[in-house]
Amino acid sequence: MKYVILGDPLIAARPRQDLVTFYGTQEHKRIATEIDLINQHEGKGLFEGVLHIDVTFYFSRQSRSKKNKKGMVYYGGRPEIFTLLKWLQNLGIGIIFSKDCSFCSFSTSKQFSDKPRTEFEIRCL
Q: Average of pLDDT values for 54-75?
């Protein structure tokens, strides 16, 4: 099944500390994205066992205009692809799959697009 998360891809942020309390700066984005994934998954069972994920992270050309040369398809700048994957894995636990350690294979790329989004597909091996 194919899933789509609209908007520029996000990375897994580290918690910050404000004297007494810890808080995550991406909490509201995470919750909204989780709700969207729940709706896309349509109540199907969780993926279990050994898994493979195909992911394409599409970045906006406008937000990276200094690094973007006209006609480029692939994006080689920050954020690193592994932090993007970790964000995606953290989102899907308990919604799409049972454990993030189940992934043993992946195929991924970062590309430019006029419609920023993250598209991914998971399958059992």
A: 73
